[in-house]
Amino acid sequence: xxxxxxxxxxxxxxxxxxxxxxxxxxxxxxxxxxxxxxxxxxxxxxxxxxxxxxxxxxxxxxxxxxxxxxxxxxxxxxxxxxxxxxxxxxxxxxxxxxxxxxxxxxxxxxxxxxxxxxxxxxxxxxxxxxxxxxxxxxxxxxxxxxxxxxxxxxxxxxxxxxxxxxxxxxxxxxxxxxxxxxxxxxxxxxxxxxxxxxxxxxxxxxxxxxxxxxxxxxxxxxxxxxxxxxxxxxxxxxxxxxxxxxxxxxxxxxxxxxxxxxxxxxxxxxxxxxxxxxxxxxxxxxxxxxxxxxxxxxxxxxxxxxxxxxxxxxxxxxxxxxxxxxxxxxxxxxx
Length: 335
Prior knowledge:
- By secondary structure, the protein is of the alpha/beta class.
- The protein has helices at residues 11-22, 36-46, 62-72, 87-95, 108-120, 166-244, 261-271, 299-311; strands at residues 2-7, 27-33, 50-53, 77-82, 100-103, 124-125, 134-136, 141-144, 162-163, 281-286, 289-296, 317-325.
- It folds into 2 domains: 2-164, Rossmann fold; 247-325, Alpha-Beta Plaits (2-Layer Sandwich).
- Helix 2 packs parallel to helix 3 (62-72) and helix 3 (62-72) runs parallel beside helix 4 (87-95).
């Protein structure tokens, strides 16, 4: 059983690797760590066979952690698993004692195969990354950039020398260099463009802030004007109602306000030639009933009032029990 420790500062990466590798019958995930310092502590505690190590991590990076692990724990091998494919990282990792270097876009089965081969003692490098470690000579022999580093016991499994055409190697290096220069140029242009756009963005933000402030001010003023207008309109409506109906007939001694059928009954009394001068009777309303209150000089006038009120639309009942008949009153009697 190959005991594996997963080291990456991103939890999602650790969980994904754990799920992918646990399905293999000969691989056991013994632990995880989120930085180089925690990785060293876990190696000392768990003694794993393989450490899958990320490069860029807070605290202690992958290369430094690899050096300490390979120097202190001879039986533990490190496989670098990162997003960076620069020759500097590859060279540095292998110089620190790593036995493998793979990118995070590797297929699960390829990663499983690399773990098994490193466990057996082989050095594994992802396809396409080997050229970043090699330089050519006039004889066509490709030498490792690690040739200046003295091999240690952790680096007993070295890369087998390979012979390729020097023209092809030089061409590949030149192509990679040109691509890097193009990317650097594009980044610089993007940065310069961003610097040029920054004052415009600040200016637009300032304009937008002013517009928002003006809109808020106009909105508050509009609400104030609308409130004043509604208040004056309500006053005019009340004044108009008082002008339509004589003051002496508005409510019971000014305590009841006329509305609806009571208002229509009061108007009907005003339009009657006999009742228009009667000011001793007050009209009140309760639901669909009219209540007459006060005094009249003649019961005939009271009956006339009752009949006129019943003819008004909406009036179903007329109560006259609170009207007193006083014959001594005349039509011209007023309050």
